[in-house]
Amino acid sequence: MQVLVVNAGSSSLKLRLLGEGVEAIASADLPADARDSAFTGELVRFGPIDAVGHRIVHGGTEFREPVVVDDHIVERIAALAELAPLHQPAAVAALRATRAALADVPHVACFDTAFHASLPPAAATYALPAAWRERFGLRRFGFHGLSHAYASRRAAELLGRPEEELRTITCHLGAGASLAAVRGGRSVDTTMGFTPLEGLVMATRSGSVDPGLLIWLQRQAGLSVDELAEGLEEHSGLAGLAGTPDMREVLRRAGAGDASAVLARDVYVHRLSAGIAAMAAALGRVDTVVFTGGIGENAAEIRERSLAGVPFLAVELDAEANARGSGDRVIGLAGDSSTRALVVSSREDLEIARQVRAVIA
């Protein structure tokens, strides 16, 4: 089965045609949305397609597993746009355009939130009034589930151990960033919540902030809801601290002694180390810490500093493998424990294709 994977981001559109192997038969990265003629042109170029898998960021409380798409499903996914305003509208546009262009093949929606549907109540529940939780369906959803699921499965392969035996912390560090505590292949805790704003410091997103601070900004500073939303989503994180969302630039400037870049790096690492420690507490025992995503795969300094911030894991990095290695690899063993540190290339496309084949079968 040849599966076309459609991954629509807030400003880009990635297409991958996958056969049974790990290498793409064809691919395209478009700086456009699904309404652009370049998109439909690429679909024609890809040739025979047996099924299409779509990455959908938010599945709400309704979508807890991948689902074959029909018109009703599209409308239900579109109704969740307010929960992920940077990504959901683009994904829905791609879903509609692809279904129109490829009407004779099945389309499957694969949700980033679905992997975290297994969160235990203690991890999923906000300590809010019961009436609010029940009326509005408030809970911690978690995100990047497709990446976390693949990273934990790939780590088990690299270590030659059954995934069911492992307790893994997966660190998806890209423009968006989140951690997951994975026990036996199931998510038991994560850092993102009701929306992708909660948790770690990100490229332009704030991560967790005191809700009282936001109330103060509304009441005392007169900021509107729209101003708060724009500031938290687009002008915070590394951009708010150092004036750039690019971790490469932050690390370059920090190495040269730039004060704002040093602060951005240190705040990022402080939150990251604290998050890893929290995931370790949820697991009780940690067999492996896995880094994935653009920063997770490429920023050796961030890996080194974040692991140094959780010394109880006792991971001893292999400096050569961490700094100059490439591809999927073990970068650290433990001194007095069995904890490993790994780098895994982010392959959400492979996880989506796997889910599509399972649903179609």
Give the number of helices: 15
CA radius of gyration: 20 Å
- Note the run of SSEs as H and E: EEEHEEHHEHHHEEEHHHHHEHHEHEEH
Which shape, going by the Cα principal axes? globular
Within CATH, the superfamily of the largest domain carries the name ATPase, nucleotide binding domain
Helix content: 40-55%
| CATH class categorisation of the largest domain | Alpha Beta
Sheet with the most strands, sense and barrel status: 7 strands, mixed
What class would the helix/strand composition place it in?
A: alpha/beta
Tell me about this structure:
It is globular, with a radius of gyration of 20 Å. Helix content is 42%, strand content 19%. The protein has a seven-stranded mixed β-sheet with strand order 9-8-7-10-13-12-11, with helices on both faces. A six-stranded mixed β-sheet has the order 3-2-1-4-6-5, with helices on both faces. The chain has helices at residues 37-45, 71-78, 88-101, 121-124, 130-136, 145-159, 211-219, 225-234, 237-242, 247-255, 259-283, 293-298, 300-308, 319-324, 348-360; strands at residues 3-8, 13-18, 24-30, 51-56, 67-68, 107-111, 167-173, 177-183, 186-190, 288-292, 315-317, 329-334, 340-343. The chain is of the alpha/beta class and 361 residues long. It starts with a strand and ends with a helix. It folds into two domains: 3-111, Nucleotidyltransferase, domain 5 (2-Layer Sandwich); 161-343, Nucleotidyltransferase, domain 5 (2-Layer Sandwich), CATH 3.30.420.
List the helices and strands and how they pair.
Layout: E1 3-8, E2 13-18, E3 24-30, H1 37-45, E4 51-56, E5 67-68, H2 71-78, H3 88-101, E6 107-111, H4 121-124, H5 130-136, H6 145-159, E7 167-173, E8 177-183, E9 186-190, H7 211-219, H8 225-234, H9 237-242, H10 247-255, H11 259-283, E10 288-292, H12 293-298, H13 300-308, E11 315-317, H14 319-324, E12 329-334, E13 340-343, H15 348-360
Parallel strand pairs: 1-4, 4-6, 7-10, 10-13
Antiparallel strand pairs: 1-2, 2-3, 5-6, 7-8, 8-9, 11-12, 12-13
Helix pairs in contact: 6-15, 10-11, 11-13
